[in-house]
Amino acid sequence: MHEQPLADDLLAYIEASPTPWHAVRETRRRLEEAGYRALDERERWNLSPGDKVFVIRGGSSIAAFELGTAPPSEAGFRFVGAHTDSPNLRLKPRPQRQREQIHQLSVEPYGGVLLHTWLDRDLSIAGRLLTRDGDGLAETLVRFDAPLARVSSLAIHLHRDVNEEGLRLNPQEHMLPMFAFGGEAPALEAMLAERAGVDPAAIIGWDLCLFDVLPPSRGGVDGEMIFAPRLDNLASCHAGLSALLGAGDATKASRGVVLYDHEECGSMSPQGADSPFVPELLERLARAFDDTSDAYPRALARSFLVSADMAHAVHPNYADRHEPEHKPRLGAGPVIKTNVNQRYATDGESAARFKRWCAEADVVPQEFVTRSDLRCGSTIGPISAGRLGVRALDVGNPMLSMHSCREMAASADVAPMIAALRVFLSRLD
Fold first, then answer.
1. Is 331 helix (H, G, I), strand (E, B) or coil?
2. Phi, psi dihedral angles at 143 (to 5 degrees)
3. Residue 333, Cβ neighbours under 10 Å: how many?
4. Is the Cα torsion angle 306, 375, 399, 404 positive or negative in sign?
5. How many whole angstroms separate alpha carbon 56 and alpha carbon 422?
6. How far, in Å, CA of 311 to CA of 314, rounded?
7. Cα–Cα distance between 165 and 26 in angstroms, integer?
8. How many Å apart are CA 210 and CA 105, to the nearest integer?
9. Contact status, residue 237 vs residue 31, Cβ threshold 8 Å
10. How many other CB atoms sit within 10 Å of the CB of residue 166?
């Protein structure tokens, strides 16, 4: 794919992925179309060089690898890491309540949400339902495309100084969306069951998110802008997956992509980057071809991780928030993210390697460093590198409105990142 089809394909990927569970389902669909098969962590694995496999944990994290022609203990792993989750509003276990004859949904902010950006949006509900299945559980994904709810802002007539004083939102009191007026409360469980095609009595749990029903789109005079929810970090998931599926013939090294959940709230979960998910997976892959006691550490010593998470483009209205010589521009290519206090995994060596891969892809990277008087964000990069002991760096495409209900990036940045990651996954050095 060239630049424009890749940008449009990113929009399709985001539209199919209103929640982490949907993102994993869409990723799985694309992997299976490319010949990848699922592995069950509970079973023994029979693997051969060249196999294309994936593992899902918790329904919201997925790792896919194409096994190399050489054992990992001799050639290592090369993989891209990203995350499937984005800041949003999530329904509480007993969400329905009524105030002033208006039915509302109790929600809890997930991650570092820019709360004000969720006001006056056409919102709907998506996520997963857990239902009884004999003695076990079945998981069903659900999504409403019609707008069901809205968090209305307060009229300026009732808060005359809001533009001067700023808007202060209490997430417990001010962020409850309205979804019906007066009378008897709509039966949310019945609505969910009908949409998912399950028995309402069988529903015994859920993980449900609100999302903006306005589809991702191209904007600007020539379609050079991308307006979309969840660019952080579905754009990086799409880039890593697209690079893997377009990497060409197998190499000696095993190569893959790992898309984690729960980055936005610290990565401490059974399927997050600060879990045994990927260490256990890589050890099993390494020992499938070399059962010696040191096969796994030898494989890690030959491995490399590119942590891909979106980067902060310079905002023309707030340019002073950037380090003067480190102002990534929209449409100007991938960004190498550096922090000497290890909030990012990049060091001089890993940055140099990425620059070489960019040069081979005919891509010129940009650089980002947080101002020394501002706190730096972080990624799965340092967490994964620390758990695994592998060389790593952090990169990402530039964007604006990070953690907003709707974010902004440049269509011209989609293809160069994929090209650079494809070179990374195709080389041996």
1. coil
2. -155, 130
3. 21
4. positive
5. 23
6. 10
7. 43
8. 10
9. no
10. 8
- Residue 410 near residue 226 (C-beta atoms within 8 A): yes
Q: How far apart are CA 294 and CA 286, in angstroms?
A: 10
CA 422 to each of CA 9, 35, 80, 233: distance values in angstroms, whole numbers, following the listed order? 17, 18, 10, 18
Tokens matching residue 156: 């300026």
pLDDT in tens, the chain (429 residues): 446 799 999 999 999 999 999 999 999 999 999 999 999 999 999 999 999 999 999 999 999 999 999 999 999 999 999 999 999 999 999 999 999 999 999 999 999 999 999 999 999 999 999 999 888 899 999 999 999 999 999 999 999 999 999 999 999 999 999 999 988 878 899 999 999 999 999 999 999 999 999 999 999 999 999 999 999 999 999 999 999 999 999 899 999 999 999 999 999 999 999 999 999 999 999 999 999 999 999 999 999 999 999 999 999 999 999 999 999 999 999 999 999 999 999 999 999 999 999 999 999 999 999 999 999 999 999 999 999 999 999 999 999 999 999 999 999 999 999 999 999 999 754
Closest CA to 308 of 245, 395, 411, 390: 395
What does residue 265 show for φ and ψ, rounded to 5 degrees?
-125, 20
Whether pTM exceeds 0.85 = yes
Q: How far is CA 57 from CA 182, 236, 259, 319, 382, in A?
A: 42, 19, 10, 41, 21
Give pLDDT, residue 428: 57
3 state DSSP class of 57: strand
Query: What gap in Å lies between CA 424 and CA 321, rounded to an integer?
Result: 32
Q: Which amino acid is located at 49 in the chain?
A: P
Structure tokens at 30: 């694309």
Place of tokens 């989750």: 85
- The sign of the CA dihedral 276, 279, 285, 288 is negative
Phi-psi region of 144 (alpha: psi -120 to 50; beta: other; left: phi over 0): beta
| Interatomic CA distance for residues 190 and 114, integer angstroms | 31
